[in-house]
Amino acid sequence: MKVLGINGSPRGKGNTALALGEMQKEFARHGIEMEIVHIGNKAIRGCLACGACSRNRNEKCIIDDDPVNDIVGRMKAADAIVLGSPVHYANIAGTMKSFCDRAFYVAGANYGIFAGKPGAAVVAVRRSGGSNAWSALNYYFTIANMPVAASTYWSIVHGTAAGEATEDAEGLQTVRNAARGIVSLLTGAPAEFEFGARTSFIR
Ligand SMILES: Cc1cc2nc3c(=O)[nH]c(=O)nc-3n(C[C@H](O)[C@H](O)[C@H](O)COP(=O)(O)O)c2cc1C
Question: Is the Cβ atom of 156 under 6 angstroms away from ligand 1?
C-alpha cells in the first residue's frame, strides 16, 4: 500500500513538510510507504473553466506544461491521499488551491478516479485560520467520494519559522492520529489513537 502526500507550501522544509514527515514516520510504523511531492513552489496556474477535461475524458487537464497531470496520475495510483497546506490569509495557499481545483476537476470529469481512497488534510499555521484551511482541503475529498480519516482533533500544527512546529506536541499528535485514521480505513482495523498531548500558545 502507498500513500501520496502533497505539500502545498512554497517552503519545501517548512511546517507543512514537518507535519507530512510526521505522518510519513507514522505510516512507516505500520509498514506503509508514504511518498511526499512538493508542489507549492511550482508555477501552477488556476483552472481555466474551459471544460476540456469533461470533453476529452482522458484523465488530464488541458494545461499540460506544469506538474498537475503527472500528480493526478500518481494520486490515481495511490491507495490514500494526504493534502497539506500552510495557512495563507485564513485559507490554503494559492498554488495549492490552483492545484487542487484542477486535479479534482479532472477527477470528477473522469467519473471519480479518486473515489474510495481515504483522504486526510493537514495544515500549518502561525495563529488563526487553521480550521478554515483544514475545512477547505476536506471539501475536495468529500466531493470526490473519498472517505475522510478521523483524528483526535483537526490535524493542524502551529509554528511560524520553518521547523517551529516541532514544539507543537498536540498538533503533531493530531497529524500522527490522522495517519492512524488512514491506516484504519485502509486495513479495516479500528484506529488506535494516541492521547495526552496538550499544547497552548502564549509567549
Ligand atoms: C502569505 C502568507 C499568509 C499567511 N497568512 C496567515 C494567516 O492567515 N494566519 C496565520 O496564523 N498565519 C499565516 N501565515 C503564517 C503561516 O501560516 C505559517 O508560517 C506556517 O507555519 C507556514 O507553513 P510552511 O512553513 O509550511 O510554509 C501566513 C504566511 C504567509 C507567507
Answer: no
Atom 9 of ligand 1: nearest residue by CA position:
128
| 71, 40 contact by CB (below 8 A) | no
Q: Whose CA is nearest to atom 30 of ligand 1?
A: 88
Q: pTM surpassing 0.90?
A: yes
| Tens digit of each residue's pLDDT (9 = 90 or more) over 71-120 | 999 999 999 999 999 999 999 999 999 999 999 999 999 999 999 999 99
Q: Are 177 and 194 within 8 A, CB to CB?
A: yes
Q: Choose the residue to mutate in 87, 127, 132, 172 for probing ligand 1, maximizing ligand atoms within 8 Å of C-beta.
A: 87
**Which residues are CB-neighbours of 2 under 8 A, at least 6 positions away?**
32, 33, 34, 35, 77, 78, 79
Q: What is the pLDDT of residues 144-179, one digit of tens each?
A: 999 999 999 999 999 999 999 999 999 999 999 999
* Domains and their CATH numbers in the chain: 2-187 (3.40.50.360)
Q: Is the CB of 128 under 6 A from ligand 1?
A: yes
